[in-house]
Write a structure and sequence with these properties.
Shape of chain B: globular
Structural class of chain A: mainly beta
Number of strands of chain A: 11
Radius of gyration of chain B: 13 Å
Largest interface: A-B, 23 and 22 residues
Order of helices and strands of chain A: EEEEEEEEEEE
Shape of chain A: globular
Structural class of chain B: mainly beta
Radius of gyration of chain A: 13 Å
Helix content of chain A: under 10%
Number of helices of chain B: 0
Oligomer: heterodimer
Distance between the termini of chain B: 37 Å
Chain lengths: 109, 114
């Protein structure tokens, strides 16, 4: 079993829909990152969380440390949100960054 | 927020040549920088941890002589892929850490070795 699991692996939605991407992990962490990767590979860091909730524009990220779970939400989704979204956790025992496999999101106009 | 840049963003080279990738923290000093290599299906492998003024710490299985890392200043770390081969073609990402456990990621460099 992977230490970081994301779901769904693929998600196709219509423009305007509310999107949720989930990330579960099985190790102790000191921080969790949500990143966005567009075709061609460019990485954009969206959030770093150690507790609670953060919001930036139409993006909201939450983390529940007790349940070892984080969610990334996109409100009023737009085709330009189409990308791969990656959850990565910083393991607190050895400071290793463990990446999830990513969720490929396609927003149709 | 803190910004990390990488240069070049994309490079194509012939087999046998060496390629240097730069990672810069633009608005903060980073005592530690990390170099990652991305494999298919988005999995990422930590290659090495780079500390300013000292030798990099390489992960098991990463060839030190092939992937040369230099962290000469608090804002710049370089990764040199020496004698590159097609199997070195990949997406290389750096991250920089100003303090504590915050990490800020660079946008990545796509290396294609012909």
């Amino acid at each position: 079993k992977n230490e970081v699991e994301q779901s769904p692996q693929n998600l196709t939605a219509q423009e305007g829909e509310f999107i949720t991407i989930n990330c579960s992990y099985s190790v102790g962490i000191s921080a969790l990152h949500w990143l966005q990767q567009h075709p061609g590979g460019g990485i954009v860091s969206l959030f770093m969380l150690s507790s609670g909730k953060k919001k930036h524009g139409r993006l909201i990220a939450t983390i529940n440390i007790q349940e070892k779970h984080s969610s990334l939400h996109i409100t009023a989704s737009h085709p330009r949100d189409s990308a791969v979204y990656i959850c990565a956790v910083l393991r607190d025992s050895n400071y290793q960054l463990i990446w999830g496999a990513g969720t490929k999101l396609i927003i149709k106009p | 927020g803190a910004v990390v840049s990488q240069h070049p963003s994309r490079v194509i080279c012939k087999s046998g040549t060496s390629v240097k990738i730069e990672c810069r923290s633009l608005d903060f000093q980073a005592t530690t920088m990390f170099w990652y290599r991305q494999f298919p299906k988005q999995s990422l492998m930590l290659m090495a941890t780079s500390n300013e003024g000292s030798k990099a710490t390489y992960e098991q299985g990463v060839e030190k002589d092939k992937f040369l890392i230099n962290h000469a200043s608090l804002t710049l770390s370089t990764l040199t892929v020496t004698s590159a081969h097609p199997e070195d073609s990949s997406f290389y990402i750096c991250s920089a850490e100003p303090l504590g456990n915050e990490q800020f990621f660079g946008p990545g460099t796509r290396l294609t070795v012909l």
